[in-house]
Design goal:
elongated; single chain; 1799 residues; 47% strand; mainly beta; 19-stranded antiparallel sheet
């Protein structure tokens, strides 16, 4: 359980005191001083007895404390805080003058048997009771434990060390003795009696003593622990206590105790073994009682026991007498007589529930005890009926105090009458009749200090005349088993009468079981209470000497509160709200069954005191929460299962007098929970509040399918309910409908000022918020409550009438936008709810409208700390909450607050205006604001369609609502504040029960970014005639200041129309991101009252963006701004290093903000630098300008956060999400006067990087097509630095143009920080504005292409006014051979930035004599030198045409590299490369190569000539197998040629060439010419294509011997020889049609082949000859796909040739042969059989050939993964060839094939 605060403990302990005399005040000072040294932490119930039910009532709440007591509590707290108090005492507050465990309300379980050091009292309480405060000293003890027993068995005080005396002695090796000091010892009671209460101890005061331990105890922090088998011998010398002479007083009361003489045992010894103590020795005792002497000795043989009724340990003694004779009555109040036999005597040891952490000191040495049988008679003063015959009397005597008790006595004939009050005119006094028919306990206590107390249960019958019911009769009050306590002291005589179950008693009296209580009604001026008959009564007061009249006292009657019905004095309408639940039907279905659900208690207090004539009587009422006061009685309807009343008649059972305690000064109420709030308000927990229904979630507005999903507006109504419900909810509300209060009323609910979150904080020490349960009280006949619980209440102030919307949403694809209302009629569900004015006052106010409004006005006028809180409506879906107080406070500085006053006008004839409350706004916090209220305003999105369905739309539209509510209601970027400094944009409003009147025009002249700039309301008596809400923001990324105005206006017909201006531009888009932050005004406070200085002043700032606009100088004449649904809103959470708070003050702590931007399209005129066509002259704010029109430019309006623009990160994310942001244009531009022109198609805003490559900057780019020269084939290409690839710019891609130059502030405008002449204008990506090249860099370039070469001008740039093309990259050149090595438009050039070599990637750097032959420009490109490459012309031959001329000396030739590798498969298998020099066969350079290149569009010419170019082929290990050498020439207008190529063979081929030359010479031909003419070159490299092929081959014709052909074909020729040579290379050769992806890859290879055939005549017969034939073919090849390969084919056979003179020659050939093909992973072996017949007729005019071939092939091929397959193939081919010269040519071939996989 959480410990209550010290303040709350002190409030409950001393708060109820009433200090009326000087003696009381003096005693209070002593009390306060002692409390500063008292331990107060812990359970508050341990400090004071269980409270009566009245102590839970509002009479005892904290605010009822007197100022004196509040000051005392503060003094005690301060004293305790200055220095940690030395807690010397514990304290207990009792209600009775004497102490004894059997006497209720006199001791606590922990204080019984404990020594009291000081007592302060009696002090009177506010309810009339008297209190005594006992201070018990805290002792220091050593605890002795035994293993197996959880609690200590002894707590003792060892003697201090004194010289010569040992406090601890070693008796033997195992025994230890402790000497005990004078003081006290506590003994675990269960050692003496196992049935003693757990944790109880008995204490004795000793003079000295010893402890003998059988074992050495383990000592830990003054805790000694013995083993379980140890024994302890305790020997005590008890301190004798006798009544001092001062106790034997001659006072009237207490004589019996004062006259006693007591002798207690002087010694007491016992042994502890195990868990039991056995007594060894007890000294003698004696007693003189009422003149009779009695000697007592210990009865050794009788056991000890725990006496539950006496609540003590009983040690039996033997008595010297056998009967008790009352020889002399010794009291003037209580009368004991006769004699009785003695049944039992003994020594009683008191029990205490000891606090082991702070043990008290024991008190005395117990009591001497006697018990008698029947015979004694007891009576007291004022009792009639012969007294009580005692059946078993217990006498308990201790020094100075005597207790007499009998637990079962009765006398139905005894009675006593106590007169209560009697007013002067009252005939019969109010009185109570007491009777004693029931058997029960009788207690009498006499103390030598002059006090006596008697306690007895009785029946009571009250005859009183108040309080009265609505019919004027008093309630009946009868009780049974009521507790009566009479007290007589030297100062006063007191009477207590208490009963808490009168309803159960009535049931018993009327013999009804179960009994349903009587119901009645009590009326007040503004309430009606439906109650039960009284269930509890409490009477206490001062009594006359004869105990016949209570001359000063209080009578409390507790009524069960069934229903509280608030009323008003005048006619009214009521919404009983939650208290309607009081009238739920009962289980039987009966209406109005409030009796079945009791809500709390209504206490009627009647106080009286003696006056000159009669008594002065006062009746008051108080509320108390529901508690266990029924004693188990059910108030439900009659049923068989009704719970019976508890039995309180058993002897000694006083539980009926004990009430569960609650600290009424520190009760906690969770006001967030409706049930708990009702509990706190004295209503039943069963009551539940129904929370307002949340609005339905609205579906997104209808959009095209392609539109992004858009979120609807938040449910602002539900959010408003959530944040304000606790302040607006009503337990009930009453509205006066008469003209007396002018439709004002009241509403009620529990409130605490801390809930308003206005300058509040929790308790700095405890962190607790305490709240009293008693919100309702009765003063006189008025129900009152704290002002904070009562609100002024009236009708909604402004009618939310239907609105005709003249501005419907845009059609798709741009609209509709969520939140924008539909065109036509818009409706509202209601008028927004009632108007309430709450307040924070703790002072009481009557629950009625006129007293309440007077209270509000007076408190606002006079109380500087007073705060009123007004909840009201504004036009068309707006709600507001305003703070009304004398001063608004910010940073602990005050300024004028919102005022509340009455507007009242007096007219003639005593006519007055109705009740009207005027609210005037306070001084604004910020510069630029009109007067406004602290608080909150919300625009609800509660528009209904014509069918009454919720649409989720708002009167202000989606974007305006978002901005307005972020500023005045809820912004997710800040903690919610209901009463924020800038909350209600209203300057004045007059409230009345007939509707509000207001003419408010609130302005914010400094509104800049997502802020409201105007809120105007013209209202007359609840009808709005004119409303204007205007917001301002900024449009990204162009920095266009925009404004949007929503206007509602009433026309003469009474209809209200809505017009939405849409977003309108207030500025041009010149990237001027100015805004305001606010800082403390050093001149505040100051200024005239009518125009005071603001506390915060605006300071202009510029956003952090680094924007480089390049050629886009600004956007002007912005119009047609339309929100669009085509683009999703930008909503991200972004970290801001710098921001502003709710008030616009700068914050430099990093914080995340929710960013929301609304996409829009708009039209504008764009100023493009250098525009030469497509522009128009238009007027702007800066004068006339040449502007390019653009439409549907994309932009984003900032809706949040408010007050400051985006940062770099947010803008970067926005651009990154969109890619680029811009619009379309159509204009021709000359780039910075360079004569280079472009056709811009659009412009956009892009992300970029600062020079460090990471910091964000932003760059605008103009994009379009570059105008290129017509001569040659010019195009634009892009280079990707990551992979070095060069590719064409896509057809629809706009090439960007950028230029550095940042926007900076220039007075009231902006400018570029860098002159145009100082920087380059570049064709480059915006990302490369400052960034050094990285892998992601993309460059652009000019490419000139011809059939034989390409020239690339990369990274072009331009200087202002200089007609030259500049570049940081020298020109790159590629020839025809390099072209064929790429599949792209240009060979790979790598990163493109290393100029140290002759080449750049696969391209040739155009150098002369090893250096770059171009002039350097004065400017640099990202720190690199820039070359002037081309002269740029825009006019050729007087015609506007783009022209470029290479800037170099054409007489000097460009360098060429030595070699260029086309293909190399490795290991000498195959290689093709280019030599740019003439070399001999050994590779020695004989003459270097050179390039004659030029571009001149001015003269419309270009050329490219390369000398000494050689193509070299290595194959099959043969170096320089074939070399083709020559010059390569191309120029404009001519076909590219390779004139006069030379063909060179490797030395390894010389024998073959020589053989062929011999054969050729025999044929009388020119072989050299044949070789040259046989060279075939094929290239495909057109300028418009980038698919290149190259093939160079030489196939030497077959040489036949003998010659001519007639001789060779003659059948009689004895010897025939054929030979041929084939050599060549190819690159990217034509691909075959295949489905194999590998075969689709580009291929390159080389081949060397030789063919030979020999025919030798064997037999010749006339015209027929038989030849033996041998034939061989050998091909050696290498290919990038197959690798190196070898093919051999050879065969042997015979041929018969017959020559016929007329017909011609006929031959038949038969050959058998084999073919072998070996390549990587492939082996093929074939055998074949060939039969061929051939006939030539008429000298070859007719030729017929028949061919039959049979072939078998064995093939083994390696597969991926290491596997292989083997196939066998059989094939038969038949062929027929018939040819008739120039007429017929028939070819026919048919094959049959079978293939099987065999392995």
């Amino acid at each position: 359980m959480k410990k209550p605060a010290i303040n709350a403990l002190l409030s409950g302990l001393i708060g109820p005191l009433r200090l009326s005399t000087a003696e009381d005040k003096k005693a209070s000072l002593q009390l306060n001083k002692l409390l500063t040294r008292t331990h107060l932490e812990g359970d508050p119930l341990a400090l004071r007895p269980n409270p009566f039910s009245i102590e839970k009532s509002d009479l005892f709440q904290a605010e009822s404390l007197s100022d004196t007591q509040k000051k005392s509590i503060q003094t005690i707290e301060k004293a305790r805080k200055k220095k940690e108090p030395e807690t010397q005492f514990t304290v207990f507050r009792r209600d009775l003058p004497l102490r004894d465990p059997l006497l209720p309300q006199s001791v606590a379980s922990w204080s019984a048997g404990s020594k009291v050091d000081q007592t302060v009292g009696p002090l009177q309480g506010i309810d009339g009771r008297q209190f005594w405060f006992d201070f018990l000293p805290i002792g220091t003890f050593t605890a002795l434990y035994k293993q197996g027993i959880a609690s200590p068995i002894l707590l003792f005080q060892p003697a201090k060390k004194v010289e010569g005396i040992r406090t601890r002695a070693v008796l033997s090796s195992r025994q230890i003795q402790y000497n005990l000091a004078k003081g006290g010892i506590w003994i675990n009671a269960r050692l003496f009696s196992p049935n003693a209460p757990e944790g109880s101890y008995t204490g004795l005061t000793i003079q000295s003593g010893t402890l003998k331990l059988s074992h050495v105890a383990k000592n830990t922090n003054k805790k000694l622990t013995l083993p379980a088998n140890a024994t302890i011998e305790v020997a005590l010398t008890l301190a004798q206590q006798e009544s001092s002479a001062s106790d034997k007083t001659a006072t009237t009361y207490g004589k019996a105790a004062a006259s006693m003489s007591l002798n207690f045992p002087s010694t007491f010894s016992f042994r502890i073994s195990g868990s039991t103590a056995s007594i060894m020795r007890i000294g003698k005792a004696g007693w003189q009682l009422m003149g009779q002497k009695i000697s007592l000795t210990w009865s050794k043989n009788e056991p000890l026991s725990y006496h539950p009724q006496l609540q003590r340990i009983l040690i039996p003694f033997q008595s010297s007498v056998s009967e008790i004779v009352v020889q002399q009555p010794e009291s003037d109040f209580n009368f004991l007589r006769n004699k009785a036999p003695l049944e039992l005597s003994g020594w009683l040891l008191p029990l205490t529930q000891l606090n082991l952490n702070q043990p008290t000191l024991p008190e005395g040495t117990g009591q001497l005890y006697l018990r008698t049988g029947p015979g004694l008679v007891n009576s007291w003063k004022g009792l009639a009926g012969n007294g009580f015959q005692l059946s078993q009397t217990h006498f308990l005597a201790s020094p100075g105090q005597l207790l007499l008790a009998d637990f079962n006595v009765a006398n139905p004939h005894a009675s006593q009458v106590l007169e209560l009050w009697r007013e002067a005119e009252q005939v019969v006094p109010s009185h109570v009749q007491l009777t004693f028919p029931q058997a029960g306990p009788l207690l009498y206590l006499s103390n030598a200090n002059g006090s006596e107390i008697l306690m007895r249960f009785c029946d009571a019958d009250f005859q009183v005349d108040r309080p009265v019911k609505v019919d004027g009769s008093p309630p009946s009050v009868q009780s049974k088993h009521s507790l009566l306590i009479l007290s007589a002291t030297s100062a006063d005589r007191l009477a207590y009468l208490y009963d808490d179950n009168l309803i159960a008693d009535t049931g018993e009296i009327t013999n009804q079981d179960p009994y349903r209580p009587e119901q009645m009604a009590l009326a007040m001026s503004n309430a009606l209470f439906k109650v039960t008959q009284p269930n509890g009564c409490l009477l206490f007061g001062k009594v006359t000497e004869d105990f016949s009249k209570v001359y000063e006292g209080s009578l409390f009657l507790s009524f069960g509160l069934l229903a509280y019905i608030p009323t008003l004095p005048d006619p009214y309408a009521a919404n009983l709200g939650l208290i309607r639940n009081q009238f739920r039907p009962d289980s039987a279905g009966l209406p109005g069954a409030a009796a079945a659900s009791m809500q709390g208690w209504l206490l009627g207090k009647t106080s009286w005191s003696a006056a000159t004539e009669g008594d002065e009587v006062e009746v008051t009422f108080h509320f108390s929460p529901l508690a266990q006061l029924f004693g188990g009685i059910s108030l439900e309807s009659t049923s068989d299962s009704a719970t019976p009343a508890p039995d309180t008649s058993s002897p000694g059972n006083f539980s009926g007098t004990v009430i569960n305690a609650t600290n009424s000064f520190a009760m906690q109420a969770d006001l967030e929970n409706p049930a708990n709030r009702l509990s706190a308000m004295s209503f039943s927990n069963s009551l539940e509040q129904v929370e307002p229904q949340a609005m339905a979630k609205f579906a997104s507005a209808a959009t095209p399918a392609a539109s992004p999903v858009r979120k609807p507006l938040p449910d602002y109504g539900n959010r408003w309910e959530k944040e304000t419900n606790r302040y607006r909810r009503d337990v009930f509300a009453l509205l006066d409908v008469s003209t007396n209060a002018d439709l004002f009323g009241i509403s009620f609910d529990l409130f605490d000022r801390r809930q308003f979150r206005v300058d509040t904080e929790r308790d700095p020490i405890t962190g607790e918020i305490s709240y009293s349960f008693f919100s309702l009280q009765v003063q006189g006949l008025d129900v009152v409550s704290n002002g904070e619980n009562v609100r002024a209440f009236t009708v909604p102030q402004i009618s939310w009438e239907p609105v005709i919307n003249l501005s419907p949403p845009a059609p798709p694809p741009d609209g509709p936008i969520p939140g924008d209302p539909a065109g036509g009629f818009n409706y509202y569900p209601n008028d927004g709810g009632p108007t309430r004015i709450a307040n924070n006052s703790k002072e009481k106010v009557v629950l009625a409208p006129l007293p309440l409004t007077d209270f509000l006005l007076e408190k606002r006028l006079k109380d500087t700390a007073f705060q009123a809180f007004s909840f009201f409506t504004l036009p068309f879906g707006m709600k507001a909450a305003a703070l009304l107080t004398e001063n608004y406070r910010f940073n602990n500085v005050d300024r004028k607050g919102g005022n509340l006053r009455e507007t009242k006008i007096n007219f003639d004839n005593a006519m007055q205006s109705g009740l009207q409350l005027r609210m005037d706004a306070g001084t604004p916090l910020r510069e630029g604001d009109s007067d406004m209220f602290m608080g909150t305003t919300v625009q609800l999105n509660n528009v209904l369609d014509f069918l009454g369905n919720a649409t989720g739309n708002s009167t202000l539209g989606g974007s305006v609502t978002d901005i307005f509510n972020r500023e005045f209601f809820y912004d997710s970027n800040y903690p919610f504040e209901l009463f924020k400094q800038r909350g209600v944009p209203v300057t004045r409003m007059d409230l009345s029960g007939y509707g509000a009147s207001m003419f408010s025009n609130w302005l914010n002249t400094k509104a800049a970014v997502a802020e409201t700039s105007q809120a105007k309301f013209d209202v007359m008596l609840g009808r709005c005639s004119h409303e204007i809400i205007q917001v301002k923001s900024i449009l990204y990324p162009w920095a266009i200041k925009v404004v949007r105005t929503i206007t509602l206006f009433r026309v003469s017909s009474g209809y209200v129309y809505r017009f939405d201006s849409g977003w309108r531009a207030e500025s041009d888009g010149k990237f001027d991101f100015r805004y305001y932050v606010y800082e403390t005004n050093p001149a505040f406070p100051g200024g005239p009252p009518e125009n005071p200085e603001p506390q915060l002043i605006a300071v202009e700032k510029m956003a952090e963006f680094a924007i480089h606009p390049g050629l886009v100088k600004g956007l002007y004449n912005v119009s047609n701004i339309v929100e669009t649904a085509e683009v999703a809103p930008f909503e991200e959470n972004v970290l801001f290093a710098e921001s502003v708070d709710q008030l616009g003050m700068e914050v430099n702590t990093p914080q995340n903000f929710d960013v929301k931007l609304q996409p829009v399209y708009f039209d504008a005129d764009v100023e493009i630098e250098g525009a030469t066509a497509g522009m128009q002259t238009k007027t702007t704010a800066e004068g006339e300008k040449e502007l390019v029109p653009s439409s549907r430019i994309l932009g984003f309006v900032q809706l949040g956060p408010k007050g400051f623009p985006l940062n770099n990160a947010a803008l970067r994310q926005l651009v990154q999400r969109q890619g680029t942001i811009g619009g379309a244009i159509d204009c021709e531009v000359e780039l910075v006067g360079s004569a280079q022109k472009m056709r811009f198609s659009h412009f956009d805003f892009n992300n970029s990087f600062a020079q460090n490559g990471s910091d964000p900057v932003f760059c605008l780019a103009g994009r379009g097509n570059v105008l290129l020269p017509k001569d040659g084939s010019w195009s634009m290409v892009r280079h990707e630095r990551a992979n070095g690839e060069v590719s064409p710019v896509p057809p629809n891609f706009g090439i960007p143009v950028i230029r550095p130059g940042k926007i900076i502030k220039d007075g009231e405008s902006v400018k570029i920080d860098t002159p145009v002449n100082a920087v380059l204008t570049r064709i480059a990506e915006p990302l490369e504005l400052f960034r050094q090249p990285i892998n992601g860099t993309v460059n652009y370039g000019f490419l000139q292409s011809t059939d034989t070469q390409k020239a690339l001008l990369l990274t072009p740039s331009f200087q202002n006014g200089l007609k030259k093309l500049l570049s940081k990259t020298p020109p790159l050149f590629v020839d025809a051979f390099r072209i064929v090595n790429t599949k792209g438009i240009f060979p790979n050039i790598g990163a493109g930035d290393d100029f140290s070599l002759q080449t750049l990637g696969e391209a040739i750097l155009m150098k002369k004599n090893g250096s770059i032959p171009f002039d350097l420009n004065a400017l640099q490109d990202l720190g690199q030198d820039v070359f002037e490459l081309m002269d740029v012309q825009d006019t050729l031959n007087n015609v506007k045409e783009q022209g470029l001329q290479l800037l170099h000396n054409p007489e000097e030739l460009f360098d060429l590299p030595t070699e260029f590798e086309l293909i190399d498969v490795g290991e000498g298998n195959f290689r093709i490369y280019i030599e740019y020099a003439k070399k001999d066969k050994n590779g020695t350079i004989e003459e270097p190569g050179s390039l004659d290149f030029d571009i001149n569009s001015v003269t419309e010419s270009w050329k490219s000539k390369m000398n000494n170019i050689g193509l070299v082929i290595d194959l099959a290990g043969i170096k320089r197998l074939m070399t083709i050498r020559g010059n390569w020439d191309s120029e404009k207008g001519k076909e590219a040629t390779y004139p006069k190529p030379d063909l060179e063979f490797a030395p390894e081929l010389d024998p073959l060439v020589d053989l062929l030359e011999i054969l050729q010479s025999l044929q009388e031909g020119n072989y050299g010419e044949a070789v040259q003419n046989g060279l075939q070159l094929a290239m495909s490299n057109k300028a418009g294509s980038w698919e290149y092929k190259f093939e160079a081959s030489k196939e030497i014709p077959v040489i036949r011997f003998p010659v001519p052909d007639a001789v060779y074909n003659d059948p009689n020729t004895p010897f025939k020889l054929e030979a041929g040579l084939k050599i060549g290379a190819y690159f990217n050769a034509a691909l075959k049609v295949t489905t194999n992806a590998n075969e689709l890859l580009p291929s390159a290879g080389g081949v060397l082949g030789f063919y030979g055939r020999l025919s030798v005549m064997c037999v010749s017969v006339s015209a027929a000859t038989i030849y033996a034939i041998g034939q061989a073919e050998v091909d050696i090849a290498a290919d990038t796909q197959l690798g190196p390969s070898l093919r051999m084919k050879f065969g042997f056979g015979a041929q018969i040739v017959v020559g016929l003179p007329v017909a011609g020659n006929v031959s038949v050939l038969f050959v058998v042969g084999a073919e072998i093909f070996i390549a990587e992973g492939i082996v093929e072996v074939s055998a074949f059989l060939l039969f061929e017949g051939h006939a030539e007729i008429l000298g070859g005019i007719v030729s017929i050939t028949i061919r039959i071939e049979a072939k078998g092939t064995y093939a083994k091929k390696a597969l991926p993964g290491g596997d292989s397959r083997t196939d066998m193939q059989c094939q038969v081919t038949f062929g027929l060839d018939i040819s008739i010269a120039f007429i017929i040519n028939i070819n026919f071939t048919e094959s049959w094939q079978e293939q099987r996989r065999i392995a």
